[in-house]
Amino acid sequence: MPHQYPSLTSEQKKELSDIAHKIVAPGKGILAADESTGSMEKRMAQINTENTAENRRLYRQILFCADDRVKPCIGGVIFFDETLYQKTDAGEVFSKYIRGRGMAVGIKVDKGVVPLAGTDGEIPLWCLDGLSERCAQYKKDGADFAKWRCVLKITANTPSNLAIIENANVLARYASICQMNGIVPIVEPEILPDGDHDLKRSQYVTEKVLAAVYKALSDHHVYLEGTLLKPNMVTAGQACTHKYSPQEIAMATVTALRRTVPPAVPGVTFLSGGQSEEDASINLNAINQCPLPKPWALTFSYGRALQASALKTWAGKKENAKAAQEEYIKRALNNSQAALGKYVSSGDKGSAASESLFIAGHAY
Amino acid sequence: MTHQFTALTPEQKQELSSIAQRVVATGKGILAADESTGTMGKRLEKIHVENTEENRRYFRQLLFTADSTISQCIGGVIFFHETLYQKTDAGVPFPNLVKDKGIVVGIKVDKGTAVLTGTDAETTTQGLDGLGERCAQYKKDGADFAKWRCVLKISDSCPSSLAIAENANVLARYASICQQNGLVPIVEPEILPDGDHSLLRCQYVTEKVLAAVYKALNDHHVYLEGTLLKPNMVTAGQACPKKPSPAEIAMATVTALRRTVPAAVPGICFLSGGQSEEDASLNLNAINQCPLPKPWKLTFSYGRALQASTLSAWAGKPGNLQAAQAAFTERAKV
Fold first, then answer.
1. Which residues of chain A lie closer than 8 angstroms to B268, CB-CB?
2. Is cis: bond before B159, omega within 30 of 0?
3. What is the pLDDT of residues B31-45, one digit of tens each?
4. Cβ contacts (< 8 Å) between A211 and chain B: which residues?
5. What SS3 class is residue A113?
6. pLDDT at site B223
7. In whole angstroms, what is the distance from residue B112 CA to residue B104 CA?
């Protein structure tokens, strides 16, 4: 291990680093619009709308065509494969349209599952087969970053050592393959909020998981300046009886990150993990106001927490499109402020702003 | 590994964290005066002075009684065991003398290197046996931080995976034991400058070593906010024909650290590793001027680079005391 074999040229490194920095520029975060067809089934069911390709296209169009007020708030959009090739009413391919608005195009690349035998129901892993070819194709089709979600859970015996090591390793392989194809990997080791564990336990597990992730990234020679991290915030379990304040969540989260995430990583884009829209913004804001020194950008990569109100307002009806867009724009602006530590909650709830978006055992 | 078992109380953490921050307070660094008896022998031989206990005491006294302005530059002093129990001419124990100047007392606790069988003369470091008891005693005797040096080298086949893993692990055990006894551990994974390797090679190896060190510290539940790191700067090998500039050294060093050292670590105190006094200062300066964001203090823990001139100025003659102290003060300020 004492010799370095070139993996990326200086130009490749620069390209990756530039993309990553652009996505997490001050005040900007990510719209995660990469729900799989199966996930969209559940969402559409909630608003009594049929889960057709056309309805999925119409819905994503509402988000993507929101007016320029969202431009300073959104650095990147994560797509699902189908959506990357769908078009606006005017006939422009979504990926090109988003790029044209100055936002980076991202793509969810995890696929297939392989369960972890002999574990206490620990979550299946996604396969790496064919990833390089797919990344190369996605790059040609306009994508500049990718997302791969690994999932761990907290119970009396989990996450096990095996789950931590395996997930860290597969994330590192994925990251390495992406970079070879000019794609910035978002590394997502999500620790589910399911359970009744307290904040301390969540912090402890998060630190162990992230330490393993960054050791694996180092072992696999991943260029950290050209990656992003998408972790859970450190929160107590959903069923924990003690409720913690945003400041406590912020302190626990920032402490965990300071102990594990090297300063070379340009940005940390939190997942919302079932928090309500309003909580997700308030917590992100508290994180940015935390007095501990924070050497990376701290912003959002929200799916449900950006879309819940918009989806509810749309309810599958064309005439509601504008109103739905307004809901989305509002959340985007709020989260942009939160990413700067400047969000003041007006208490305005929007149509779904304070509804918990928790889904037990959330899988895509 | 899913449950946390209390290692340190909040009070213990608070104490460790504030000691660490005091040592690397802005503008301050560490005087490494922990040369073993054998090493002092080599130093004293160069100035034709006999390696007696008294001469060693006298030289350290010279350093410790230099004028009080050094308190602005020196946050901590690392002692060798013998020195911790020596006194000034006036009978003041050295630890008391140093503490009264507002400087933190440190102690070298390792017992030297041991060869790893089946490697190309690579080593690990000994001293874990009875370390807990020794730390507890040193704490009583005035020490607040400790130092343990691991050594790696660069060659075609080195450092091997084994050397990296073994040294990282022993450093983590040492750190964990120190913290249990109220001592801030300085973690020192020195990669020797011997060889003709390039700057890039040194950077690569440094990154691999530090990544392993911090994984081990995490595995061993070490409280990072109550530790300090003492690494080599990233430089080309001493026999490398191409000499990098201070700016290149700085960029390579800071990049390597940014990729491996968590922001929770309060300070990084570079070893001088045989650099000249002037080079050590120039390089440290360039490091602090490097435009990349640096979330830890970046300072010195110098032995030879602070003492070389002082040693020659003294040359074993009491009459040279003033000159020697002035030389030391000057280097410290730089």
1. none
2. yes
3. 999 999 999 999 999
4. 214-215, 218-219
5. strand
6. 97
7. 23
